[in-house]
Amino acid sequence: MTACVKRWGGVLAVLVVLISGACATNSRRAVPPGTTQPDKFLFDRGTTELNEKHWLTAREFFKQVTETYTQSPYRPDAKLAIGDSYLGENTAESLVLGINEFQEFLAFYPTNARADYAQYKLGMAHFKQMRAAERDQTETKASIREFESFVTRYPNSSLLPEVRTKLRESRDRLSQSEFLVGRFYYRINWYAGAIERLNGILKQDAQFTHRDGVYYYLAESYVKTKRGGEALPLFERLIEEFQQSEYLEDARKRVAELKTELKIQAQVKSQP
User: Fold this and answer.
1) In this predicted model, what pLDDT tens digit does every residue of 58-81 receive, in sequence order?
2) Residue percentage of the chain with pLDDT more than 70
3) Model pTM score
4) Contacts of 248 (CB under 8 A, 6+ apart)
């Protein structure tokens, strides 16, 4: 009997805690009687919680705006703020939920003044999920797609400089991934594969930040396959475009060697 009483006492205590928590949650979201703009009240409370990084609490307020006050002028901004709260949590699950919020915003409010912000945050949700260059680049490609869409759709946005920066970082990650593959092909002496992969980088991303490595290994691949005439311009571009590079010294040596070699070949060909 005593054990039973204790067990039920424990259950009662748990119920009290749960009910108290639920009441606390409801009190946080409760609109005071007589509030003339309840949607604004909820939105402002949500904004305060969001600024304090209380992601879940903020989301409760914003969801009440979007679900209860469907005609409220604060509804679009509340929708964006829900997405921001998910990005703030920055977990694999929350980022996926954030993507959904920003996609829905763009579908529901394509002409809204903050559509550019939604597109930017959509790109950022993928950007935050990018993996190292050695790993799968699906999210990197998605990030590039969304940022490129931003540049096309919102060329006058104040967010454009930040988007261009993130787009460059995303493209660099993808190109670095391709470079690692090309360099691997070079190191296992599969020069045809290295040439194809490294040339692809220069065609797809001519402004790759670390293209000095691409120039070097592509040129070396040409050297290894007796195509010095195609290697020389690449070494020269490396020297011209990069004042600092781990490949500079070797590139200068190669330029001197190739120029001498090509000069001798030209002389031989000119002889009767």
Assistant:
1) 999 999 999 999 999 999 999 999
2) 87
3) 0.84
4) 238, 239, 242
